[in-house]
Amino acid sequence: MSLLNNNETIEDYENYLNRYPSSHHADEVRERLQKLRTMYGDWQRIANSSYASDFERFRQKLPAKPIGEAMRTENRFARLGNG
């Protein structure tokens, strides 16, 4: 499944499953897809928040590896202060 390693694009996971629904890695891909959907949904709920605490809670829920440029919150924290 090296094709999807470090990939954070939901559409790529959906395309993989559409093309290879019974592959050896299908269950793994489905699990990762669900996690990505959850994280992107969580991000959408707080993206316009003015509270740094919302971003801190979101960041704490992320896995060790960063998920998506749009979800990086370091610059956002610097602008918000301690909300």
Structure at a glance:
With 83 residues, this protein is mostly helical. It is built from 4 helices and no strands.
Number of E-state strands: 0
What is the C-alpha radius of gyration, as a whole number of Å? 15 Å
N→C terminal distance: 41 Å
Low-confidence stretches: none
Per DSSP, the total helix count is 4
Mean pLDDT, to the nearest integer, reads 78
Structural class: mainly alpha
Q: What percent of residues adopt helix (DSSP H or I)?
A: 55-70%
Question: What kind of sheet is the major sheet?
Answer: none
The proportion of residues in beta strands is: under 5%
Shape: elongated
Order of helices and strands: HHHH
Write the SSE topology:
Layout: H1 10-19, H2 26-46, H3 52-61, H4 74-80
Helix pairs in contact: 1-2
Brief descriptors of the model:
83 residues, mainly alpha, 4 helices
Account of the protein in words:
It is a single chain. This protein is an all-alpha fold and 83 residues long. It is 58% helix and 0% strand. It is built from four helices and no strands. Helix 1 (10-19) packs antiparallel against helix 2 (26-46). The mean pLDDT is 78.
